[in-house]
Structure prediction request, 228 residues.
Amino acid sequence: MPAMLFLSLESSTDAGSVALWRDGAIDERHCPPGQPSSATLLPLVSALLADAGVRFADLDAIAFGAGPGSFTGLRVACGAAQGLAFAHGLPVLPVGTLEAMARAVAAPRVVVCLDARMNEVYCGLFADGVAVSPAGVHPPAEVPLPEGGGWVAAGNALTAYPVLHERLAPCVHALLPEILPTAAAVAALAAPRLARGEGIDAADAAPVYVRDKVALTIVERLAIGGKA
Prediction:
């Protein structure tokens, strides 16, 4: 792989992060817990680059976690990537968040389950890092079951929805609820794509929402025991 230097942004969940890829080495920083990524992501980028002695003019590209995930978080990472790329004439590399989660698991077959809120789960199946089903959003009790053996389930939805844990437990040999998308995993996936010249114009970058609904109606909230 050629020498490359690029920035990676991830804020599809509350656990936002940024990373700097430098010729295969990754320096990652995490946003302070309890604070919105809209307020912390760019200051963290500035601190990371300053500590590394890197200027924006030195970068080859900017990668970001494109989704699915939090609607607000996805817009933050995409908007930051676009703004920085426009300002410095850099290509952009969108990377799927479910793919990044699968990349973080040391297993060949991974069921990724990310909490989508609203009593739903973003789900994808990956074999050797390649998606074997399209990313979808499902109620926890209806998440597609993997076929065959050797699967690992990963993602915070396993903790958020006990019914999902029960549904997948007989089909997998390990459950990893701590796995979330990270800027380091996004960078690792973006690097070979940048080497192949697959960066896109900043104007063409967009979040991948998977669903187009942001909130439940009052009737829907009441139906699952919530408040009006």
Q: What stands out?
A: The longest strand covers residues 61-67.
